Amino acid sequence: MLDTTTKRRIDTARDILVGKVPDPKSQVEQITIALIYKFMDDMDAESEELGGKRKFFTGDFARYGWAKLMDRSLGGHEMLGLYGEGIAKMPENPGIPALFREIFKNAYLPYRDPETLKAFLKIIDDFSYDHSERLGDAFEYLLSVLGSQGDAGQFRTPRHIIDFMVEVLAPRKDETILDPACGTAGFLISAYKHILRTNADAKGHSTLTPDEKGRLARNFKGYDISPDMVRLSLVNLYLHGFTDPHIFEYDSLTYEERWNEFADVILANPPFMSPKGGIKPHKRFSIQAKRSEVLFVDYMAEHLTPTGRAAIIVPEGIIFQSQTAYKELRKMLVENSLVAVVSLPAGCFNPYSGVKTSILILDKSLAKAADTIAFFKVENDGYGLGAQRRAIEKNDLPQVQAELAAYLHALRSGASTENIVALTSTAQIVPKEKIAANGDYNLSGERYREGAASVGLVWPLVPIGDVCIIERGASPRPIHDFITDAPDGINWIKIGDAEVGAKYITTTKERVTPEGAAKSRRVKPGDFILSNSMSFGRPYVMATDGCIHDGWLLLRDQSPLLDQDFLYNILGSDRVFAQFKQAATGGVVNNLNSEIVRRVQIPLPPPDVQKEIVAEIEGYQKVIKGARAVLDHYRPHIPIHPDWPMVALGEACIVNPRKSEVADLEGSTVVSFVPMSDIGEHEMFFAPKDTKRLDEVTASYTYFKDGDVLLAKVTPCFENGKAGIARNLCNGIGFGSSEFYVLRPTGDLLPQWVFMFAATPAFRVWATPQMTGTGGLQRVPRSVVESYEIPRPPLVTQQAIVAEIEAEQALVAANRELITRFEKKIQATLARVWDENAAESFGENP
Fold first, then answer.
1. Domains of the chain, with CATH numbers?
2. d(Cα 825, Cα 620) in Å, to the nearest integer?
């Protein structure tokens, strides 16, 4: 288990780097390099203590040894030069093994600040190499800060999902194990721990022989296309006891060198995204495709040994997409290796991605003997499905794991599987001939549920292109030659003309000449358009005429079977957006095109049911519209009496109180930590979410205490109204972003009173023109804040006004909660259209 001291060291190292190295992935790389550098010196020191010789920092490299680096007589710039030169030259060190040479390949120091490096290396100096599992746990905690590698469609797999997949496959000590898209080697390490755990006696002592341990380490193999991921995998495995980890920089889809290498067990969460134009694989794949998810699943199915097993996380496209490559892949899996499908909830990968996924369980020997495939549905995985993913009591994974194990055992023993279905609501066992019946080989379990009014049976899924014509807009170029103010100008419809959350586009900011309109695509009131670039996938209905550029798609001539308002709502659903996001192409900016949208599938209930669904949603939207109007128009108003004295904030408040107020406290004192993201906009109070030790924050962060007013000073946070009053701080003390001003009212001035004037639009309008700095990063000078005057009525008057405004704001907050609740109701209604017993819900009898 990870101890709190080690965790705190890692957090502190990241906090030190964040000012110079803001990217989490780069922070992880810098900590990784420094740890290995330090551990090589630790191993040299251990060798000397045992009577041996140093092998890493010898000869010309002795000058880079850790002790010399940490010598107190060494100046900051000298340390900077020595360390930077040491990591850059380390691959040339003849004394280091290939593993370390790979880790230091292309390593460099991305900043030149001596003080940052000195503080960083001081933290690294507290780590020591001791061969224990604690270092492996510490490194896995460090890797957990890596979230989405979104450009490649890679998302960090949650640890409990990895462990679930490993427990299902139950790898054995004599089996070869592969992850062909290994990332940071999480699957390989979980499999390794499983084997160690299942080969131990009652006291936890290993029963593996030395020869078995040696073979075990050689049986693990991983590939990744990214050299950065390879480096992290090597370190992760090394710190878990692999002295010679077999991780290779290798593109599983385009390289052929390892095509003839097979594995007994394959575990993977491969990338979902494909580059523009698709993957260009070699010719040895059974399935001819350009989509990475199709090719990866094909690769893994083909690279299992005759008795091999696999567990693969896949996106929804693999489950039900109707293109030829997807259907051919599913056919191959059903006929040769697929034994089970586990459907995961859509929020499993939050906060990195809301994409819906499933796990394919392959077993080549069982699949050939079985004539059924089992489907399991996980609705709760032990964590809430929102962005925070907090632990909850509901967890279907243990039950699904037990039922899946029972199903696989029944297949192996030839026993009946009827009892499994009888005892559970999560499992379905479907004959292969039923799955193959229509040639689609759909792997959505709900489609085969007997007696259920599921969309797959009652309301068919249809490609959007089957129910309307999709055309792309067009742009005359150069566009500025066609923009006009003339009376005969035609509306030029841009994404900025569409308000987020609005249904209709009613006006435009610009017009184009008739000549420009002739080179574009005309739209009229009632036409349906969809954004296909930047904020792609947002649907709108035209309430005016005009022209659309090539960042829009026009959906026209809808089928009589498709209600336009139903189409608007279904395109705005989370499920359709997930399909858009998965299929979008592009480098810097993801885009949709007409072909992608044509292929996306939507459910098509009968027209009268569509109207019922629309009516329900519109009822919710009316509530949201009313609540939003309250939020948009409410502004606390304080009528200022002419007799009230005016006072400058610099006189009424202590601005940025001194940290010396807490100088006498123990460094171990726990205090609240408040980054800028925890401060709301136009909200009087904020809730502190994090804590740190006092000695971790004193040097670099802004100090405040309960009752202080925090005011953002940097663009765009200041202009957006980020401010708030501190309360309920841990031990009454807080530290936070250095981009805050802290205002501490003096005398008989209330914090709420100061907030209501410092956080007003009037103050921001007055202060914004006086901001200084570069165009991209401007700040409000302290002198500007201190000179701003506010009224100072008697305390009793302040208290009365504050009490009235706080009562008003409680009502406003209730409207904000109302919006959240009814937005969830809308998505729940749309979810029923996709997944649940929708016919029953809306009174339709199958």
1. 4-139 (1.20.1260), 147-450 (3.40.50.150), 463-603 (3.90.220.20), 646-792 (3.90.220.20)
2. 7
What confidence category does residue 450 fall into, taking pLDDT thresholds of 50, 70 and 90? low
Structure tokens at 625: 């519209």
* Res. 452: pLDDT tops 50: no
Q: Which residues lie closer than 8 Å to 608 by C-beta, 6 or more apart?
A: none
530 - beta bridge partners?
A: 539, 553
Side chain identity, residue 292: S
**Residue 230, pLDDT above cutoff 60:** yes
Q: Are strands 552-556 and 601-603 parallel, antiparallel or unpaired?
A: unpaired
Evaluate whether 568 touches 612 at the Cβ level (below 8 Å). no
pLDDT tens-digit readout, 528-569:
998 887 677 888 999 999 999 988 999 987 777 788 899 989
DSSP string, 115-156: HHHHHHHHHHTT----S-HHHHHHHHHHHTT--EEGGGTEEP
Q: Of the ranges 287-291, 370-374, 390-394, 499-503, which one carries the lowest mean pLDDT score?
A: 499-503
| Tokens matching residue 583 | 């299929």
148 band by pLDDT with thresholds 50, 70 and 90 = very low
Residue 107 backbone phi and psi in degrees, to 5: -75, 145
| pLDDT band (50, 70, 90) for residue 330 | very high
User: Helix 24-49 vs helix 76-89: angle between axes, to the nearest 10 degrees?
Assistant: 90
- 224: which strand partners? 249
Query: How far apart, in whole angstroms, are the C-alpha atoms of residue 830 and residue 842?
Result: 12
The terminus-to-terminus CA distance of the chain in angstroms comes to 54
| pLDDT score of 149 | 38
This prediction has a pTM of: 0.53
**DSSP notation for 294-331:** HHHHHHHHHTEEEEEEEEEEEEHHHHH--SHHHHHHHH
How far apart (Å, rounded) are the C-alpha atoms in residues 247 and 105? 14
Q: Which has more pLDDT, 746 or 452?
A: 746
184 within 8 A of 29, measured Cβ to Cβ? no
Half-sphere exposure of 705 (CA within 13 A, CB side): 13
Tokens for 512, please give them: 């184009």
**Two tokens, residue 347:** 């929020």
Specify the pLDDT at position 175: 96
475, amino acid identity: S
Q: Please give the biggest Cα pair distance in the chain.
A: 93
More reliable by pLDDT, 269 or 229: 269
- Residue 249 parent element (H or E): strand 247-249
Task: Write the DSSP symbol of residue 389.
Answer: -
- Output the CA–CA distances (angstroms, integers) from residue 161 to 26, 146, 235, 629, in the order listed: 26, 17, 22, 42
Residues in the chain: 846
Q: How many CB atoms lie within 10 A of CB 379?
A: 14
Residue 288: count of CB within 10 angstroms of its CB:
13
- DSSP-assigned letter for residue 714: B
Q: pLDDT tens for residues 770-799?
A: 999 875 678 999 999 999 999 999 999 999
